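Before relying on records like the one below, remember that each one covers exactly one chain. Contacts with other chains, cofactors or solvent are not represented anywhere in the record.
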Amino acid sequence: MATIEIIIRDDNGNIVNNNNDFIYDFDIVTERFSEIEGAVEEFRLRSLPEITKSILEKNQEIITIFVEITIC
């Protein structure tokens, strides 16, 4: 079984997410195109909401820090 690991980095190359946040098993039993296509679609549906949430949370943290600095 293959594993997909997604690492999100900022503009400076620093890892933004925790190491184990986005590790997904990519279950392909045979090498038929239809099975690979189905596995990719399942992966997309499982992973995108979590990735989007993580990016939005990190951006919210940055905005909050910026606002606190600006107000002070």
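Helices lie at 33-71.
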